[in-house]
Each structure stands twice: as C-alpha cells, then as structure tokens.
Input
Amino acid sequence: MTGDRRARAWVAGYCALLALIIVGPLAGSGYLLLRDAVSTPRSFLTDSALGLGAAAPRAVPQDALLAVLSAMIDGGLLVKAILIVALWSAGYGAAVLTREFLAASTPAQLVAATLALWNPFVAERLLQGHWSLLAGYAALPWTALAAVRVRQATQRHRPLAAAKTATRAGTDTRTPIGAPASAAPSDSVDRPARGDVGRAASSWSSGAWAALTAGFAAAGLTPTGSLLAAIIGLALVGRRAFLPAAVLWIATCAPWLTATVLGSGAEPSDPAGVSAFAARAEPWLGTLGSLAGLGGIWNSEAVPVTRTTPLALVGTVLLLGIVALGVRAVWRLGRDGRTLLIIAAVAIVLPALGATSVGLAVGEWLVVHIPGAGLLRDTQKYVALAMPAYALCAAAACRTVSLWWRRYAVDGSEAATDLREPTDQPKGAADAPSRSAAGASAVAVLFIALLILPLADLAWGVGGTMRPAHYPAGWAQVVDRMDAPGDVAVLPAGMFRRFQYSGTAPVLDPAPRILPNDVLQTGELRVRGYAVTGEGNRARTVEDALLRGATPAEIAALGVGWIVVERTTPGPLGDSEKTLTAAELAYQDADLALYRIPGHTPTDIATPAQRWISAAAHLLWAALLVGGLLTAALLPRISPARAARPTR
Output
C-alpha cells in the first residue's frame, strides 16, 4: 500500500510540474488578459453576470462565481488558481482513468497524463483565453470514471459478483473496472459478512453518485463544458441510472438554462457565426487531420508557432501513432472502452463535416431555428471529447510496446528454459522483472518525449504569450466614482481592445467585468472576415447614437447613466465628442475618462423575480459542486470487492 501511495504521489507531482511549466509566467503578480480571458481585481454581481443581460449567457455561472468570490479573494488570483487546478486535474484524471480501467503501470499513467496536458487543444484554448472551458475539459476523465462506477453500483448483484471476482483465496488481485466481468478470476472464496458488503456497496454507490455530481457541476462552469461532461457521463452511466443521471445533470445546468429562458439566450444567433467559428485546417493536415491531432481551432492567430510549421504534421503523426498502438487494447476492454472510442471518433468526424458546405448549411439552420444552438457553432471545442479515449490508448500503447520489449529483449533469452531446472536457468534470467520494468520506463520516456518535443512551445505560457498584465490605477478610480445606477456605454465602439499593458493580442473589453454597473455590449465579432452579429440590440442602438453625436438627453433616454472612454486603445469614435462635450465629466486621466449622464431613464432588462430565480439556480449549482466534491472526498472509498476480502 505504501508503494501504491508513493506511485500515486509521483503521478500527481508530475502532473503538477507539467501544469506549472505550462502556466509558469502567470505565477507572478498581475492578471490574465488575453483574447477571451479577462480577469480583474474585483467583479460585481450584475444582471450580466447572472446571464440576464442583453447578451447570450455564454459565461454562466463563471462570471457569477468570480463576482461572489472576488469580494473576498483577488479575482486575478482566483482565475489563475482555477486554471492551474484544471490543468493538474486533467492530467491526473487521465492517469487515474487509465489506472482504474487498464490497471496501468506508473510509467503508462505518466504517458496518459502527458497526452492529456500537452496537446494542441490545450495550447490553442489557452491562447484563445478559454480557461473556464479547460475546467470542463479537466472534468471529462473524472466524469467517465464516476459514470462507470455509478453503472456498476446500480447493476443488480454487481457488488457480490465484484466481491467474488476480485478476491482470490486471501490474496489481493485487482481487476480493472472497465474490463468485462468474464476477464476477472473466478476462484472460490470464503463468503464475507453480508453486512460488511452491504455497507461497502452503499458507500460505494453514494460516493459514485457524488463524484458524478461533482464532475457535472465542475464541467458546468460554462455551458459548453457542461455539454461535454453530459455526453461522456450519460453515455457511460448505463440504462438503469440514465434517467436520474440526466436529471442530476439538468440540475447542474440550472444557471444557464434559467438564463436562456429568462434572458436573451433564447434568441437565435447570427448564422454567419457558423462559418466564422468552423474548424480550420492547419498546415499539411487538412481539417480532419487537424481535428484528429486535437487542433484546428477557428482562430489562426491563437495557435502556437510550432503549429504553423511542418512540426504540426510531425506532432500529429506521432500522436496518432501512439494512440493507434493502443486502440485494440482499449476496444477489448468492452463496453466502456468502445464507448469512449466511438465518442472520440464522432467528436473528430462531426466537426470536420461541420466545416463542409453541407455541414455549414445545417449549422446555419440550427442556430436560426433552435434556441441556444449557438453553443454548437464553435465545433472544434467538442474535440475535447476525444481526450479520455486518447489517454487510455496512450497508456495501452505504452504497455503494448513494453510487452514487445519484454518478449524480444527479455523472454527471448529464456526461450528454452521451460524444461530446465532452476539451477540450469541462463545467467540473468532472475533479472527479467527488473529489466521488464526498465523497458516500460524507457518506453514511457520515449513516448513522453515524442508528445512534448513537437509542441515544445506550449511551455512557459505557450512561448511566453500568456503573461500577467497590470491594470492602470485609473480603473480603480472609475469604479469608485461610479456611485449611482445606470447602464454603462463604452468608447471606442467594439468588443475587443488592444492595450499597451496587455500585449499585442486583442482582448475582450474588461469594462463589463471590472465595473459595478451593467455594461452595454453589442456582442458583434469580426472573425476571419465575417461580421458576426451579437444579441445586444439596445447596445447597438446606444452605440449608433454615440457615434453620430447624440445629445446626453437622447443617451439618457436609452437608459445610459455613464460613459467610459478607454483612451489608449484604437477603435471607432465617430462624432461622440459632441456627446462627451455636453456630458458631465466625473474623472479623467491619460488612460480613462468617465462621464455622468444625468436624468437617465431606468431600463431594467431583468425583473426582481428573474434575479431571484437566477440567484437560486446559481446557489443550486454551487451546492451541487461543493456537496459533490466533499461527499466524494469524505466517504470511505471502499469498494464491495475490498469489503469482501477475508480477514486474516
């Protein structure tokens, strides 16, 4: 047991090391400010944070969580902590999945963890700023493991069967949970006390359900992550537990489901977004090859430099080669292995089809006619579903190649020893186990090197691109001076900014997350030559009025109480100077200016009842997350098989 714990500690420490190597520059002070990632010292529980603003609820319950916790802990520290934990959890979860499904050795677990952490999907989503999506990605192996345990716990007679097959005359033999029951040993054993097995079965079942709850809720930090976990969990949970698991998942979706019903999330999305966010072919790979290699994000600027060189082809061939070596072993696991492999194949093929002319047409029809279908427009996100299967295949490949090593490097020297006496065995035969272990370690080191080297610039903030930013002091002054209600309009027009303090990459305007009042945003994006219209109709009206130089009275009639001018970023200003000249200046410095618009007409999108409903939905999600994590951690993790072992 001590050796097993030591091995687990090594795997956990290795995953922590890889995570820290990836996000190393963020360890210093400052805030993550890169494309879609906007962390701020403090954010506020506005209608937009609850998903009740004019825009679709794409960052729910993420924004509400940060708004609540940043009142106690610096928001930048929170985001960095969540990101580091998510990366560590992705790697360690992949390792645990292979240990439980395949009884993988420590070297094989390290290979699986490396694949889960060091791949183009992680690199590209980091560069795009999708830190919360990576939390959903990290939950996938844990959700898969919990779902299988729930299915086993709900199968009739499974606890006693597991107890018999996992015990062999007082010795501890472990059967992977993903393996078919027929693969387990069937030697007879002394029947244990029924009460012990019953208590273990009850604890096992409760712990499995708690873990599944935690997996769904953790992935549900964003709607997309919630969908990813649902696909994995509901596919593996089994027929008996499918309905309660589905109800449980829907409960963890309460924040964004209620926001979709109560807010503007039910409005159709711009069909132009389907083409703009379709998967992209990377050099020398094509769309299908890019997706199979866990790449292909729509934004060609959010890719590591190595993915723009022939190393993209080399890395993809090596990755798929390692995966291919383990496919047969994972398929032979039975239902669970096959399900994960099928999910991986579908998650690669469907986004590739979605980038064809027919797929684009289908996608455009969906986002126009089905509320909430806009969540599906960034199809490359769903390649994350391939990670659990890929990790299993990588671990199985490590074992397969290790067996080849043993057969030819070790057993080959013992081919004629079966009929000999022990004293007649050739010299060095007693060293076969150590040589076999050395072979497994050598194979693991080789595979890890083949996974890391073609994508070496994932290290240290994806080649130094992810660096902490520091906000000018003027932002704190603007927050303090904004002491009255009223929505906020921001200039220059547009959703993205380029600040000197945030680097060369564009970044979402931080105003909606740093200011205490609701900020009007049009949601319009310009992607790959496409102008994708957002859902903020009132925001567009206000923006147009500012650009044509409307009077403060006209702006006030639209519900605007404040105007913030971000002076150090390029963007259209139009004739807004006419409006600003007639407005009341509340604060200005070299970076920012704040104007008060007196006599504004209150224009609340959400009613008090809607706010209470949304708040209750967020509390339900938080309770399921915390309760699931604590219950899964505190319950004795004793399987019925272990409880059935004879007492010595």
In short: Residues 486-596 form one domain. The CA atoms of residues 246 and 464 lie 42 Å apart. The two ends are 16 Å apart (CA to CA).
